[in-house]
Amino acid sequence: MASKKTRRHxxxxxxxxxxxxxxxxALAEMxxxxxxxxxxxxxxxxxxxxxxxxxxxxxxxxxxxNTPFDQRAGTNLLGKRAIASGAAALIPDGATLFISIGSxxxxxxxxxxxxxxxxxxxxNLSVAMALSEEISNRIIxxxxxxxxxxxxxxxxxxxxxFARYRADYAIxxxxxxxxxxxxxxxxxxxxRATYRMWRNARTSILVxxxxxxxxxxxxxxxxxxxxxxxxxxxxxxxxxxxxxxxxGDRITFxxxxx
Length: 258
Hints:
There is one protein chain. The chain is of the alpha/beta class and 258 residues long. It folds into two domains: 4-60, Arc Repressor Mutant, subunit A, CATH 1.10.10; 70-253, Rossmann fold (3-Layer(aba) Sandwich), CATH 3.40.50. It has eleven helices and 13 strands. It has a seven-stranded parallel beta sheet with strand order 6-5-4-7-10-12-13. The chain has a three-stranded antiparallel beta sheet with strand order 1-3-2. Strands 8-9-11 form a three-stranded antiparallel beta sheet, covered by helices on one side. Strand 2 (51-54) and strand 3 (57-60) form a beta hairpin. The radius of gyration is 18 Å and the shape is globular. The termini are far apart.
């Protein structure tokens, strides 16, 4: 079994790849260790070509830096379109929706372009812009600072924002899914925001591709078996077949349904 240090190193690299850069303080809070411990980790992780330190942060090296959100949005396009189509088919005109951050959630928003009179409550600015093209829709976003380059709002203010609303549907993704179905994120604030969304909605819809099964992230939320509908592109590896069995007809494999 990998040591705690090795697992932490893997998760740090994953978080940097996901976000483009992370501060030492944020990493210390994320893993519940001291900033001195994180600095020692960075001494090891930055001894190569992929990562480098800059003003109290660890970032992707210049030659490997891309806009993380745009990079994610450009991967597995066929799978995301199939997932988005399956999710959009569940949403009628006039529905009230929570829509989360993430590239797959944005794909769902784009697939809803024919729906009218939606009320959309979201912390994903790209989602808000996509659905604002239909003038019969009502779009509600939180205030505060936009996180770039992802173009979303995060933090405790977002948790309070979602707590003030109720919705027919909550559409959201997750950073990873653990062996027992745990929904994993990189930050506790993201866990709390997602939890508030699906607890305040009549119907929860998790949109993911199969790569999320077994993908690690440090913050744990609910479990996949608590979700009303799970829409995935293709079945996960055999190690996760017990989760598929528990979900039964609540999980749809969108590429098979096409």
